[in-house]
Amino acid sequence: MRVVIVESPAKAQTINKYLGSDYRVLASYGHVRDLPAKDGSVDPTDDFAMQWEVDAKAQKRLSEIAKAVKESDGVILATDPDREGEAISWHVLQVLKEKRALKDQPVERVVFNAITKSSVLEAMRHPRQIDGPLVDAYLARRALDYLVGFTLSPVLWRKLPGARSAGRVQSVSLRLVCDREAEIEAFVTEEYWSIIAQLDTPRGDAFEARLTALNGKKLGKLTIGNRGDADAAKALLEAATFTIASVESKPQKRNPPPPFTTSTLQQEASRKLGLPPARTMQIAQRLYEGIDIGGETVGLITYMRTDGVDMAPEAVQQIRKAIQENHGGRYLPDAPRRYTTKQKNAQEAHEAIRPTDAARHPSKVARMLDAEQARLYELIWKRAVASQMESADFERTTVEIVAEDGPRGAELRATGTVVRFDGFLTLYQEGRDDEEDEEARRLPPMSTGERPSRRGIVANQHFTEPPPRYTEATLIKKMEELGIGRPSTYSATLTVLRDREYVRLDKKRLHPEDKGRLVTAFLESFFDRYVEYDFTASLEEKLDKISNGDLDWRDVLRDFWRDFSGAVEGIKELRVSEVLTALDGMLGDHIFPPKADGGDPRVCPTCASGRLSLKLGKFGAFVGCSNYPECRYTRQLAQAGDGEGSAEASGPRELGTDPASGQMVTLRVGRFGPYIQLGDGEKPKRSSLPKGWDAATLDFERALALLSLPREIGTHPESGKPITAGLGRFGPFVQHDGKYANLPTIEEVFEVGINRAVSLIAEKAAGGGRGRAGSTPGRSLGDHPTLGGPVTVREGRYGPYVNHGKVNATLPKGTDPATLAMDAAVVLLAERAAKDGVSTKPARAARTKTAAKPKAAAKPKAAAAAGKAPAKAKAPAKAKAPAKSKTAGAKATG
After folding, report:
1. Which residues are catalytic?
2. pTM listed for this prediction
């Protein structure tokens, strides 16, 4: 028997069916070793020696793999066909050597681009050895990411409290978002007007023409810049007659786009399906690893992490056959299309993402997939098939018109596009980020010398708009254009930026948070070279040369570390006051935008004599007054809205007088956000606004309700002690005698009565819920397909999660719990179980004779007497060193 090692259990299950009883397929569950999150894991003084650590939860799996290998006739490493896959195979092999599991068994490496029976069996016939240069490129990338993260992040912690981490690719991607925001803030809107003539041909067909020249001068976009000029031009045209000077028609072709790469799939799935990149990759992974189709598990798409745009010849022939059958010979080019990547530093020459069998039409497999899987498969199938279809033929018509008996030298132009043959567009049309209409309107037939009649002249007002904020799709596109990062890292990098709270996603647009802007400003001020786009791209090129065997990986690390370590040493002695001065100057326009009344934006609104400036506290940056401690005015960095009526812009906003105390209730904004304050004494009563409450719409009544917390609900009928309701760090709660139970909504904290409160506390005391009293049992997905037992989606204190038995797996950010399907839930549960070391073997059938051997559980001493050693007591967990908790935050993706 030969042991085959892959990454995931789903992949193992599929491949095991193809190979039969002579093979045993085991899963490593991804990476099994990593660099420990502590100093010294990469040692530049020892030629960049790397200290690897086996994940504690992987120990059991590796022991099982090692045991199987010792009893085997050979080992086949069949992890994914990219750098990460090569690295996993290398790590597994190193661990097997350390465990002395290998004797004289042969070790081979196989790769397949699709998990189909033919692809897997073909790969088994052509094994190779582990690719050394690919592993070297992985080692270099991992070392670089570690050295940047674990060297730069501690500098951030000391000089910029509140910042969590920096990363080689992460920080450059963040700079893109911050630079775009700065462009938007600096943008000055300009007014401009367009003049449109609404005309009719002599045959009565309507069309429109735009004014392009006036008084013999060509008009630019912004030439007519005010209503007066627009009205004057409109009046001149209203007195004119028109003659068609020329009609020119030119044929045009539009070629189909190439099949998907990783980045183009993420972009198009975001535009057309509304899927975030991370979710797109999760679904694609499932389609790649295999879906049960008619009783057979088969991979539906090829490997989804690739830069390649070409397809295998046999796949192209399958697609051409599908085009002939579904659309006819008119849509089939004479020769197959060949595509080459435009990306200058594309990785290994993998195929593009395509269906494993073009004959497997989306309509045929839709019923076997969940909704998201079906939509993504259809997108991939259509793109791949369309890439081999005939071009679309257009006819673009331009009509030049002159105005007579009116303004001298006035010219107008009408344009239109007619589709003569739709070609690939009959199946697929690429999405657009700018949301512009792809096709111009069609023009009626016209001839030179004809005199169209005027129906009306329209003057339209416009305003220039700033560049749009990045979406996840357009940011990935920009990163790819600049050569920053790699396809396999794009979605992970975006996830890190959100998890670090450096950016937020609002209406599908990426907005930099103040924390992210501070980090970017700090790095640009003191480490500018390492957040330059060209520098990061050139480093990626060197990593590619390592993978091709053209550069030594340690030479690349030496060159990088020499300059980088010098820059870090130079900044260590920098005073925090110098950092503040630099950041205050760089972010001044953002922190202190001009006031509408023209006043000084840095004058303290409380004491009127102090100056506002950037301050650093234990939890990060904020704005404070120079007269501290006499004046305790503080606020967050950015001002809200246009500054009118906001607490940030005008200081405290008075809401009303408290009838009980006679003191003023005000809305204020501090370093931690908006809050309510009663009076102005030494220690005034305050209450932060709950999550979801809008400061702009807060009224006096709700403010008084907040200040009334915690409120006493009543007395517990058994203990006689009071029950109170309040707001805490984990949300609304009821409390009795030191015991807390969460409330499901903010509003209930003001309304909950004694009976409900007693019930919630009793449920919590009985151990009900998952840290959320009164929670519902969740949405049932049905029984687990292999292990049995119910699978449910639930809402927990820290967000939605999926549950099966003792395994709870948190749903990734952006996943809608209402639409989560069983396939996705099973994958999440398997990954969680692997991390926790929980067995995933199917449960044995229940015994029918429940009374059998009733004394077995009652005599633990008998087992010991029979020679069974008692179970070892678990050693107490070691206390984490303070540095450990910090360095954990430094770990960066990319």
Report:
1. 303
2. 0.69
